[in-house]
Amino acid sequence: MLLRIHFTGADLLRTSVAGRPDPLWETVLSLRMLQHRTGHPATEVWSRAVRARQADNLRTLLPLVRPRGYFPDFLTPSDGSPDIEHGLDALTATPARHLRGDLAVLAGGGTLPSWTEDLAAGRPDALRSLAGALRGYYAAAVAPLEQTMRTTVRAEYAAQAKAAAESGIEGVLSGLGPGMRWKPPVLEVQYPVDQELHLNGRGLLLVPTLFRTRTPVSLLDPELPPVLTYPARRTVSPEESAGRKLVPLIGRTRTEILHHTSEGSLSTSELARLVGMSQASVSHHTSVLRAAGLISSTRHRNSVLHTVTSLGSLLLRG
Asked: Sign of the CA dihedral 94, 99, 101, 105?
């Protein structure tokens, strides 16, 4: 069975690869991985530990994310969230008609718990409860692997950027890996069901993921921005060694912050978690980096997001 994604010339121009992991996609896909035996010792240890510590949250989440088949599109909002909190804000703002529609599709594959009736009605308490379960599960099961996710996705992005520079976006589509075949103007993807997706000029966002070991995943609703997650195959960042050379110049902490911001816009709180420092200390370091022209900072809702500048990227590349 195949997912057949139909491209036009405009779609090829608007197709891109995500340069950072999407927190909610990784969360949902990790829930699916949790329900499969992979045979990999490290994964099995992770799975046992998560099941032992997250029983309450899993009782809420596993009925929505079954071992295979459909899971609700609203669990992975298409807003390109830089961190889990922004993703959860987008999820809790999902219109009730979308919640009802997604849960109706899910109910076609098996009985749902009674509490999902409140979720389908868009009741705030039910949405807050779901967001709380996702937040708790993410903190325990996914956040400890955040640096690995970022390094893996960043390496995949770098490899795909090189492919695009050499062969255009069709070179990227031709080399996405096992189970995907580019037959212009259609990308054929091995899939659990037969499905047709016409991009109609919207382009496609390709999202490399750490927690996907088998087939890629797309959204069901054809009206949503088109997304295709696929297993990231690269695990080494090509700029890692060059970044280490900056340590004697600007210090280890600022080098680490600069490296993280090169992977995508990050909030002060997220940087604090990644480098293991207080937000006040991170704010001091980001102020120094910003004054030197190495990062830029913009406010987004209640957070300040930091992104590497062209000068910062040049320094990281040596």
From this structure: positive
Burial class (CB in 10 A: 0-12, 13-18, 19+), 292: middle
User: Cis before residue 63, ω within 30 degrees of 0?
Assistant: no
HSE-CB at 113 with a 13 A cutoff on CA atoms is: 11
Q: What is the pLDDT of residues 140-161, one digit of tens each?
A: 999 888 878 888 888 888 889 8
CA terminus-to-terminus distance, the chain: 46
Q: How many whole angstroms separate alpha carbon 136 and alpha carbon 114? A: 22
Token reading at 42: 């490290």
For the stretch 120-135, pLDDT in tens is 999 999 999 999 999 9
Residue 297: predicted pLDDT: 92
Sign, CA dihedral 119-132-23-68, equals negative
